[in-house]
What we know:
Layout (H helix, E strand, L loop, with lengths): L27 H10 L10 H9 L3 H24 L1 H6 L3 H27 L8 H8 L5 H19 L3 H33 L4 H31 L3 H17 L10 H4 L5 H18 L19 H13 L14 H13 L10 E7 L5 E5 L4 E5 L7 E5 L1 H8 L5 H6 L3 E5 L1 H6 L8
Parallel strand pairs: 1-4
Antiparallel strand pairs: 1-2, 2-3, 4-5
Helix pairs in contact: 1-5, 1-9, 3-5, 3-7, 3-8, 5-9, 7-8, 7-10, 8-9, 8-10, 8-12, 12-13
Bound molecules: fe (ii) ion (2 copies).
Amino acid sequence: MRLSTGTSGGxxxxxxxxxxxxxxxxxxxxxxxxxxxxxxxATAIDFARDREQWQAxxxxxxxxAAAWNYALFLWGEDAVTHGLSPYIEAAPLEEQKYFLATxxxxxxxxxxxxxxxxxxxxxxxxGSVGAGLTEIRPQLSWxxxxxxxxxxxxxxxxxxxxxxxxxxxxxxxxxxxxxATLAQTGQHFITSYLTERDLLPGFREGMENVxxxxxxxxxxxxxxxxxLRQMDPEVPHAVAEMLREVLPWTIxxxxxxxxxERYITAxxxxxxxxxxxxxxxxMSKLRSSGMPLDELPGPSVLPVPGRARERAERSKRLLLCxxxxxxxxxxxxxxxxxxxxxETVATGLDSxxxxxxxxxxxxxxxxDPWHIAVGEGSVTAQPxxxxxxxxxxxxxxxxxxxxxxxxxxxxRLLASGRLRARGNLRWVxxxxxxxxxL
Length: 438
Ligand SMILES: [Fe+2]
Ligand SMILES: [Fe+2]
């Protein structure tokens, strides 16, 4: 679809579209105005009672667990502060650029706030942001490193190619994944237990202000994505591609050190609770932007079936089995775990793109064989061998899992002979859109 009318003095942007969206009633100018009205001072917060309570009312373990969680916020706020510059350059409208400039100031304020708390209350660093970051670096989880590493690379890509689909992919990562899925969930978790226990009044005051800012940022991101979608038909593809890449990492961000779940349960929530909350938020923001998660083009971006809770529980099992997330050893070959893996792989195939029904057979040197039957509109995974499959793949199970987890590259495995494909390659070629992009 093409742009019909642009902005006029910052009034709501009207693109040519078939249906009206609730987002039409929010303008970039309103969002800017809300920023002016909602200003607060990170340097004015009084942490005197927080310091006393941090020592008197938190156990040793609670201090360690809270500091781990807050460290992710300090690192994240710093990263999103400088990460926003190419977004400002790439945004098509002046009003969008101005809002993003206010957001960048907000993120700096958030970093100042977290760094003050970490130094003045938790005793980390020497008060400079650089020292705080250096000290917390070892605490960052593997998933966190992947997500924020991707933020750095998408920023470079956006500087080189400030196109509409590239900007949409970048906004998906920043505003939908980092802010709406991760930060909002973490903020809600922290403020809930601090309010319940009536602790850390200064930190809570700051967190509530941060939450208010983040809601404005997320609202902007959803509106921008919706508007970008009207400008370029490639946008849903770019959003899907980014989500396919980063969701397995996102689910792993809150994997606690040594999988010691007390880092989360000590404060009254579980790992699954937080993943469920994050997914629910992501799904609602995607819906508002006109691109529901399960209707994005191509193979599923989150190939774990069910509602958000079931998806959270399955995702945790995939992590614990070593099928996604950080590689910590050999993946599980227990039959029920392999069933979960193959159901996930099957859900990740776009059966509508199969040229005709067929079977993909996996033969492993270090695990039992499995196959996936692709029918018309259905995909089923079963243990054992199928008769006369059009495609047989041979590999070590461990290599296959590394491929599924995004730790190894299919082309390299094929080139080195560690992954071998045999059968009706014409069927594979004609059905190639069924598979997630390599
Ligand atoms: Fe922030
Ligand atoms: Fe933000």
